[in-house]
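Hi,

I'm pasting everything inline rather than attaching a file, because the server keeps stripping attachments. The sequence lines come first, and each chain or strand is labelled.
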Amino acid sequence: MSMSASLRGRTSLARQLAEDVRSRIMSGEFAPGERLPSEADLVRRYEVSRVTVRTALRTLEAQGLVDVRHGSGSFVSDFGGGIRAGLQELRSISDTIREMGHEPRMERHASERRPATATETAKLGIPVGAEVLALERMVLADEQVVAYSFDVVPLDGFPVELVHQLGAGSLFATLAEAGIMPSRALAEVHAISDETIGWGPQKPVPGLYVLLDQVHFSRRGSAVAYSRTYFVEGRFQFVVLRTN
Amino acid sequence: MSMSASLRGRTSLARQLAEDVRSRIMSGEFAPGERLPSEADLVRRYEVSRVTVRTALRTLEAQGLVDVRHGSGSFVSDFGGGIRAGLQELRSISDTIREMGHEPRMERHASERRPATATETAKLGIPVGAEVLALERMVLADEQVVAYSFDVVPLDGFPVELVHQLGAGSLFATLAEAGIMPSRALAEVHAISDETIGWGPQKPVPGLYVLLDQVHFSRRGSAVAYSRTYFVEGRFQFVVLRTN
DNA sequence: GTAGGGAAGATGTAGGACGACTGTCAACCG
DNA sequence: CGGTTGACAGTCGTCCTACATCTTCCCTAC
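And the predicted assembly:
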């Protein structure tokens, strides 16, 4: 059960352990409701201290994946039928679609360098008129339209040689390559009924969408992207795990 | 800065500490971007061990409220002045409204004991035909309608003397009193356009809602309630904090 | 058969120690 | 003079040991 040696280094041990256990839970190696190995067991198996094990368990508990019971053990949370990709986990839409068992594809509709609008300057906390790259894309899962995405990335300080790449591949991957990996996002959820949104032969009628209006932040707290994603109602399962 | 003595007992020290620091962050005592006291400081001020402090900080970090930086310190997450009261924190609608600075009120529209429907038996994992209490309520903030709520609570094993109270006060409070405090909820988000939902003089037109379709679970993993809450679009700020 | 008690195992908390990383600032060098 | 280097204090990451508290289960006593 030991982690691959390549995992070590870079991030903290606890973080790696949490990620490893998390993947094992997701893969079903640890079934919902089942008891995890005791802290002492995990100490032996992963060859880390109990502090590290407990730190990792705490992280997973805060994420709602496990339930640590005093005097009894740690248990995989049971939601009576499977945990899905939660909205509170920050990852690219493509990755989320792939995790749900579908094949993602992004189709670029427009790509433009222009000054930021008033809304964008406010959301991103950048000066008025600062240059941004605006993207309009269509998100497909198994060739069916699931969302229309409008992304804005401030270009000030962004590596020039990577600008063209922003509109091409994964936004997350390119941002990470530029050293400004999104670490957190503040997302607002809205219900939108608008016939003017969307395009293409699969344009949904009526135009009913769940809008995810979100600002992405780097670990240091600077805004790195602002995106509005209109999810076609019914085609995408939005799940939020709520804990206390 | 010590916690009130009444806080001690019941839950774990770490949980109490996390909750205390969380409230101080929310109240602005610890401003966004600001550095928290060092772990050693917190140990002295709260008179707990470093293990406890670190456990609490880890929890807050997993919730995205603080950013712990190796060798530097712990910092309150900065979202550029963005609002808090995130959707991923499980609390009653009333509490959420109150935290946003408004006065909540629930108005009961209907209350009925009946067998569970097929959907409800599936969502709650109860036998077909099991008796449930179904509630229909209107949620107001400062006397303005913000949502219509449809709640279902399975009555099997529920204390008889508390049944009437379910329809009266706070659902959460009554469930807690019955010893089945909701600890986690799996919530689905949908955009709904439906003119048949809602009632009263303030019934919104058009009927555009953000639907929060959620199953509440106890700490042990049993479903304790199923609720569909239709939030009137634009009247309630839905915020999801996404982390990784 | 049942209630009670105790042992074993599990997590919760405490305290001390050391390593690794970060930011600062003074000394140094070109 | 400016930029670099290096020492240093502060802070988080990890480990160790010990004990307290809680759960569970089994065994005993009645």
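Residues 12-14, 48-52, 55, 69-73 of chain B lie near DNA strand C (CB under 10 Å from a C1').

If the labels don't parse on your end, tell me and I'll reformat.
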